[in-house]
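Quick bug: Xylanolytic transcriptional activator regulatory domain-containing protein output formatted oddly.
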Amino acid sequence: MLTNQSDNTPIDGSALSRISMEAESDSDSDNQPGYYRRLLNDVFRAIRSEKGHRQELLRMIRGRVPLRQIRLYLDQALPETQEIKTEEEPSKKVKVGDVPENDTPQPRPQAMDIQYLCDNAPCKVPAKPWTNVTDDDELVSHLVSLYMTWDYPFYAFFDRTTFLENMEKGNLNSDFCSPFLVNALLANACDYSQYAEVYTIAGDTNTKGAAFLAEAESYMRTHSFERGGGTRLATLQATLLLYERYSVLGNEDFGYTMLHRAIEMAEELGIVNSEKLSLSSSQLSEEMIRSIQRTAWGIFQIDTIVHTNFLKPSRIREVSVHRLPREENGREDWSPYPLSSHPQPSYMNQYFDEACNLSYIARDISRSVQIAEEKKISLNEVKQNVYDRLCQWDADLPEMFDPKGQPAPHILLLRMRYHALMINLCCDNFGNYSSFATMEKRVPMNLDPGKGTTALEVALSSARQISLIIQMMRAQYGMRYVHQFAMYAINVAIYTLLEQPDFDIVDPDFLQLTGAFATISNRSQVGKSLYHFLKLSVRSRDSSHQIETLEVIPTELKEIFPQGHQDGGAKLRSGRTSNSQQDLEDSPKPVPSPGLKDMIGEYEKLSVGKEERPFDHRESGNFSF
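Here's what came back:
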């Protein structure tokens, strides 16, 4: 009987032997010499490791998961040591094996087996007549499955079941599916495939993503005449998808442009910012009523997330249709495709309802100044009330939303959103520092008078909670597929830690968050720019800090620290100025101060652009904590 070296628990040798038996009968597998020998060796390597792969591997083997899916899992769990060139330093050699995490993007192979990937795709849909980019049903099924697995649950602004049913039928006259909507969705899905399995398909994945986006944009011009009651729901949904895409690409001001256009369409349809609509008394089908509800409440969530994130008043004051029923006893399964086919409860109805509840609180956070003026009370009183509501929301969450229970990633993201809101609420006027550049200290406010808890303490606690949730997410799913909102939450947590007066650059939570950000930032140009901004901020904040134990810093993070740290800290310990510090001092470009508000401003500029607010909205400066 084999045992695991880390805990001496038995390993089912008969289950492992199935690899050899299936190798002989699997005619579709890779027949290169030594393929199965390497596979078996890697299985043993993963089992012997201390990273918790044993149980998942045995579950896959016992469940007769195809060998190539096991191969994929091993490729992610055990990155091979090989030399690759980074984009920033073409001549510098980096050993992938030096990176301790299993979610670091790997070098792309030159080809892929699309048949293998799509055999198990949960969403089987046709390419035609929806897109002119490809006629490959398997590729489209794979991309749609990726989007529905990782991106869709966070906002869920269209009805998944109705959309897939109508896409499968191929009916171009459908009210629930259109080429505009499909191509916008596929363009978003390519963001996930770039660092997953779709490496090269008749060219580069980026080319495919750009082609889907270009076709979606051509339909956007075609549908631009839709106004008022003639606006199609699918057009509104596609516009929201373009907002998501542009906010990742950082295309000038297109992020805000698409979001505002979608809100205007929702207003024209009367589903937000208008008198209540009674959909039940209309002649609409159940599918249409459900789709309208999804879209109305989905866009409300997006609006409150975006504007509260960037410290601006939300545009949607109220949703004009009833919310979807919560259905406490309803259960849907979610599987982390393509990582595993093992299902777990999604609790999607409960999640969506709780997200809507949190969105109301976010709306009032973003309008704190306006609410204080209307009610003629102090701003601090408004924010104290909002803080109490946030705490109550958290206390009322169902038990299955506890991160310790390893829920689906959209539930983990919801918890991260809650903590990001806490940090936003505690910013500046509540006792935090506006920035280390000015060191202007304000009178602290006790958010919890009974405990004497200051806003700074609340913000730091939330930052560390985000770090803990990120650790759980990395352990369960890695960071390759996580929704882009995680990048915002990680950033506010990093800068909250960075901004505290007694900041320690080897703080385990800071290193954990920075490591996760280093991975997720590679998925987009916006992320890469923000990572560069972070490097400058850290070097500016830590220009005189001395690190005695560099061993605690992961290899892949050392690049963000001053050059003296990378050289073993000898120069800093001897009192001499590091090269990187001198470079920063001599640089003609201003070094960003390591402030939370500075980062938020940079994030907004890079992702969604500059917001024009022509009607009944205050300037962003008025939403200042």
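Actually, after a second look the formatting is fine. The chain has a mean pLDDT of 76. Closing.
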